[in-house]
Write a structure and sequence with these properties.
Blueprint (H helix, E strand, L loop, with lengths): L1 H77 L4 H8 L3 E4 L2 E4 L6 E5 L10 E5 L1
Antiparallel strand pairs: 1-2, 2-3, 3-4
């Protein structure tokens, strides 16, 4: 009966392999759990970052709206009697940089700077082409 003897001798080997595979499965489950927890933590941090960035965007939009409203008020006061020029200035883009404002598409048209003039000058700015 050599077949039964060989089966009997293989049982311990198979049993050892089963134990080894069970240990590997437990390790893999632990790794999977750690990976899942790590990813959940990363997702939570990313959501917090997104919320902070959205709040920052809201604040910046409010600040921009306030600045544009202020610019509108200044334009309205400066062009009180000049409705055509007021409408034209309202549609121009401006970049603030010190005492000068850039007008035109992408700031490439001209630079408007304050000039030293008499106090009664209705237009206290001068334009220079770039």
């Amino acid at each position: 009966m050599p077949v039964t003897q060989s089966l009997e001798s293989m049982k311990p080997l198979v049993h050892e392999q089963i134990l080894e595979l069970q240990n590997k499965i437990q390790l893999l489950e632990g790794d999977r759990k750690a990976f899942y927890e790590s990813n959940q933590w990363a997702v939570k941090k990313n959501r917090e970052s997104i919320l902070q960035l959205r709040q920052g965007n809201k604040d910046l939009h409010k600040k921009l709206a306030g600045l544009l409203t202020g610019d509108e008020k200044i334009i309205k006061e400066a062009f009180q009697d000049r409705t055509v020029e007021q409408a034209a200035m309202r549609n121009k883009s401006r970049e603030v940089g010190g005492d000068s404002h850039t007008r035109g598409v992408g700031g490439s048209c001209c630079v408007v700077t304050e000039k030293e003039t008499a106090k009664d000058d209705p237009w206290p700015y001068e334009e220079t082409l770039r």
